[in-house]
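hey m, so remember when u said the tokens were messed up on ur end? i reran from scratch. heres the input so u can diff it against urs
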Amino acid sequence: MKNNKNEFVKPSGLDLKDRLVSIQRVTKVTKGGRAFGFTAIVVVGDEKGVVGHGLGKSKDVATSIAKAVEDAKKNLVRIALHKTTLPHEQKGKHGGAKVFIKPASQGTGVIAGGAVRAVLESLGVQDVLSKSQGSSNPHNVVKATFDALLRLRNANTIAQERGVSLEKVFNG
């Protein structure tokens, strides 16, 4: 999914910080007993409008996190921000998870929990209100948050899509 402002980004030259959203131990039952492994969900971002998420699986924790970080660097997107918050409120959905994000006045902080907080902080949003409903599965919550973020549009994008001036967007 690619539009004018929310575009895919190459990781070279970016100062990316990674945040571990979730790590889970998984079990595969085989003829010889149980084989244990780990899955990790990681969000990376430069805290200036670029963010990505990734999933890594391995037999040990450190390798699964490293794989998740590499996967996240392949899925980076640039999101249009408005100062320290979002341009407008938006809903996102993935699987059974629903996320609602809403811009907040300066000084509010990041009012979000768990996976939504990790994504928004990695993005660089400092003032936002959010609500997560439905499934609390971190995989789906992260993807629902990205769905909401990728639907965001700023005034310049709307003006270009309509083929009108920026003043006409605000004054009608």
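this time it looks ok to me. Strands lie at 17-30, 33-45, 50-58, 77-78, 90-94, 97-103, 110-111, 128-134. if urs says something different then somethings off w ur setup not the seq
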